[in-house]
Amino acid sequence: MADLKKMIEELTKLRDQINYHNLLYYQKHAPEITDAEYDELRQKAAEIEARLPEIDRMQDGVGAAPDEKFSKVKHQEPMLSLDNAFDEQGVEKFLSKIKRFLIRDEIEILCEPKIDGLSFSAVYEDGRFVRAATRGDGFVGEDVTSNVATIKGFPKTLQGVQGRLEVRGEIYISNSDFLKLNESNAFANPRNAAAGSLKQLDVNVTASRPLKYFAYSLIGGAEKSQSEVLNRLDALGFCVNEHQFLTDNINGMLEFYNKIYDCRYSLDYDIDGIVYKVNNLALQSRLGSTHKAPRSALAYKFSAVYAKTKLNKIFIQIGRTGILTPVADLVPVNVGGVLVSRASLHNQDEIKRKDIREGDVVTVKRAGDVIPQIVEVDKDSRSKNVSEFVFPEACPECGSKVQNVEGEAAVRCPEEFTCRAQIIAKLKYFISKDAFDIVGLGGKQIEFFYDLGLIKQIPDIFTLEEKLNGFNLKQQPGWGEKSIAGLLNSIQNKKAIALDRLIFSLGVRFVGRVTAKLLASYYTSYNNWYGNMIKLPLNKEIFSELESIGGVGKKTAESLKSFFSEERNMKMLNDLIFHLNVLPVNVNSSDSILNNKIVVFTGTLLTMSRGEAKVRAEALGAKVGSSLSIKTDYLIAGENPGSKYKKAMELGIKILNEDQWRSLI
Ligand code: IVH
Fold this sequence. Notes:
- It is a single chain.
- By secondary structure, this protein is α+β, with helices and mostly antiparallel strands.
- The protein has a 5-stranded mixed β-sheet. It has a 5-stranded antiparallel β-sheet with strand order 14-13-12-15-16.
- 2-(butylsulfanyl)adenosine (IVH) binds at residues 80-82, 112, 114-115, 119, 170, 216-217, 275, 293-294, 297, 299.
């Protein structure tokens, strides 16, 4: 206990120092210590925080972070996204799928507007507000406790609440407040304004902004349905959206959509669709979630908005995988509240099919967060003699002859390891927010160091310090002792890296954030992952194992295989690893008897659908196979089992009937 007290005292002292230096640096612009010394203070504070029990850690919220980054908060339950539907068929499909999953003819659905803001989580301990976080990457968010505390009408205490209660919802700025705010700012839309206002290091700025919120979820309550959750939130003093509608059929769901769609401009906040939620929370938890979204909810998005503008020029961008993407440079136009000046033209075929030419008047479409598209060209307003756009046959950056991508309309610059544009795009990807996220090393600096020959490939980032020994960087515009020390320090700080970030940062095609996480938690350590990956080109079993990891699939496995078939990638990775300490994934040791077991189903289960049974088994750590082998641990046999039953007997595999299966789960 004495230790705990000492730790808290030490932490308080450190936080005071950090706050003092924040003030000097950010507001007075007159720092007294170097970046490195500052980082050391933060590092010490972080070390103590990591050792403190959660409740003590939260006592006075962490001091403002030194850069655009906030302290990180791990969500107790991931903040997932929602699956989308864009038409009535999508909604019908959702309803029939959940009915099939749950084997039920009737299901109550609660309909709510989908607020176009940014989601938050707020945690209360024994009725006291202790922490708020943004969604972040869904697993880890940014600590915005003191920012959220400034929102008018955000409850700091809850009457009669014991233990932990988490409230989730959406923070937004009303349209009328947005207009006023933008008289002195230049936010593209209310959503950006809300995000920009919330994520302020100086909470006084947040406090001066007209942030509002709607609460819609509760974790840790005793409610049995979403309608009860909304009532309870309201009773606890949270702002809850007035529009909600309970129905048990598709007509009701669509009526609510139409009603809200028609009145959407009379609401003083932006909504981008309707959210449908299975009302019964027990059924919600039976439905569970995929790695991206709960199966029990759906967003029916409003259709797109359109605007006309002039296309100035078509230019070609070369991405990290070498694909040449044509991009339209537009005369900026307001499309449903967002200023659009670029639109993706996808590929050569798309330009031909729509006959898009430079100088054309075009119709731009924007749907949700999707990159704006050009839907059509106004050919009547085209002047005569405008020639067709000629797609380059050589890479505009390095001049190599482009190649067709098999099975796709795209073309690619083949010089993966020598084309400046590709190398720079890869380097930029490597340091991006979801990858290594190196403070002080952005796109501009990457180009700068590349052109100086100091960073030619990824591992060079970690030898920059040595290379700078023989180079007078201080003579270059924009560089001084402090910024150099800060940069080297933040590179140093990223040498300890989580496995999923490392996997993501390599920029392997189809290996995005979610897949990188799946791979990291499957292989758990760098050595195990790497050991398996290098065998991919020759070992079919390792390939099929990879392909069968839930959420991975053939395309991704092929892409990893081709990455690891290239000597130069392996050399790069080995050079890189030399500098890194890759943190292994913590595997939750589960005492479920299904953990890591291979389970196969046969016959008809009477009390749950096959889909639900599979999800339940996977949730308990099992892998669900489709055919029996000596590796199978359990065969779950329902009514009228097939030939698998006999085969399992022969192989001596343990067979469970439906009752035994149910008591197991
Ligand atoms: S329920 C699993 N209800 O939409 C997430 N979300 O596109 C379920 N959103 O991340 C959240 N209004 O930030 C829910 N009435 C509402 C919502 C809502 C807006 C946001 C939320 C979510 C995003 C998904």
